[in-house]
Amino acid sequence: MTRILHRTIGSRLPEAVAGQGIYITDSDGKSYIDGSGGAAVSCLGHGHVEVLDAMRAQMDRIAYAHTSFFTTDVAESLAERLAALAPEGLDHVYLVSGGSEAVEAALKMARQYFVEIGQPQRRHIIARRQSYHGNTIGALATGGNAWRRAQFQPILPKTHHVSPCYAYRDQQADETPEAYAARLADELEAKILELGPDEVIAFVAEPVVGATLGAVGPVADYFARIRRICDKYGVLLILDEVMCGMGRTGTLFACEQDGIVPDLVTIAKGLGGGYQPIGAVLLSDRIYRAFAEGSGLFQHGHTYIGHPIAAAAANKVVEILAQPGMMEDVRDRGERLQAGLDAALGQSPHVGDIRGRGLFRGIEIVADKETKAPFDPSRRVHSRIKREAMARGLLCYPMGGTIDGVHGDHVLLAPPYIIRPEEIDLLVERLAAAI
Ligand code: PMP
């Protein structure tokens, strides 16, 4: 019998047959709160009538036109909308079909930028340890996860990694947030100097780390210092907002809260809201002009970039996200979620930290709260929490394992922004019971 190759080979997964609002129903009729929006994807929930209508309308017009022959009004208007809403200076948009593709495109754009401006010697990418930037070859090489990379290492390009900003584990007891941020910026500067300051292309980081650490945001001043170091050496700053972007943290772009503008930013997941696979790279005018005034060709491209139905869905999603009050709702509901988690789990001997921004919250599970020692990896605590939560009708995104030598178990919450206050309370109740 032919079977789908599931991620975990041979796993028996329930069959999703319906989705409405924050709920997914399986073929046994069991209903689950989509507490993680899949993997921080379903920002508007399931079955959103306006998004479905926008897709249907586009399907009735034209479903596909290759971008070497045509552009479409939906793709153009999506790009215009994104650029208008993005931090000042990110004026141009390159459409792709997902997160890894967005990261790949950003890396190639950064490299080609230096070729265009006559600095072809720049060849190094620096990212952070314990990070995830996607599963394609370039994105995998960029991610700082030795376990994920291990068996593919011989075919991966060389990349370089520095420490993530992970205050819960790395900030010293006698260290102020400012001193911690300065230490990390010094580490990046030392890495740039070690590689050769005019040989580095870009530094890549997630503003709020999702999949690998569980909603870990930076300490104040971290990104301002990082921005200054990048500027000092002409290194491009690429922010990966594939997971934390599109309003997830309470502002459309997470980096708005850090008061900096990157040279390139990647988005995906919430951009299509789960209705269509789509991603994008937003780029600065400086980079755009280097291409326009240089070769006039970005040497890249995929068959489905700017797909009309995907663009129509994303256009509607972004239009809804930009409506007045939407981001305030995400922030308010995020506060309620944090307060609920604090009340229900704050005293648990195995909950080390509860953190995040907006409707992007992470819980770090520890064996010992005092020492922050994790559970033995063989106990696979994060997987057991996922299983227990599913049994109770809740989907949460578990992460764990040993990443770059550091072991941890986390649970990530990223519910749709339409979640109602009483549903937040129910989510917390189910999660607490599962933990
Ligand atoms: N970057 C980040 C920060 C991500 O969280 C992810 C997906 N978890 C990706 C890139 C890759 O996105 P995709 O799975 O859509 O290729």
* Largest sheet: number of strands, sense, barrel closure: 7 strands, mixed
Radius of gyration: 21 Å
| Oligomeric state, counting identical vs distinct chains | single chain
SS-based class = alpha/beta
Secondary structure tally: strands:
15
Helix tally?
14
Ranges where pLDDT stays below 50 over 5 or more residues in a row are none
- Small molecules held by this entry: 4'-deoxy-4'-aminopyridoxal-5'-phosphate
Give me the strand/helix succession.
EEEHHHEHEHHEHHEHEEEHHHEEHEEEH
Mean pLDDT: 96
Kindly estimate the percentage of residues that lie in beta strands according to DSSP: 15-25%
Shape: globular
Bin the helical content.
25-40%
* Strand ordering within the main sheet: 4-10-9-8-7-5-6
Distance between the termini: 38 Å
Note the topology.
Elements: E1 16-20, E2 23-26, E3 31-34, H1 37-40, H2 49-61, H3 73-85, E4 92-96, H4 99-116, E5 124-128, H5 137-142, H6 146-149, E6 160-162, H7 167-170, H8 177-195, E7 200-205, H9 222-233, E8 236-240, E9 264-267, E10 279-283, H10 285-293, H11 308-321, H12 326-345, E11 351-357, E12 360-365, H13 381-391, E13 394-395, E14 397-403, E15 406-413, H14 421-434
Parallel strand pairs: 3-13, 5-6, 5-7, 7-8, 8-9
Antiparallel strand pairs: 1-2, 2-3, 4-10, 9-10, 11-12, 12-15, 14-15
Bound molecules: 4'-deoxy-4'-aminopyridoxal-5'-phosphate.
The site of 4'-deoxy-4'-aminopyridoxal-5'-phosphate has 15 residues, from helix 4.
GO molecular function, one term: transaminase activity
Pfam family, one: Aminotran_3
Family: Belongs to the class-III pyridoxal-phosphate-dependent aminotransferase family.
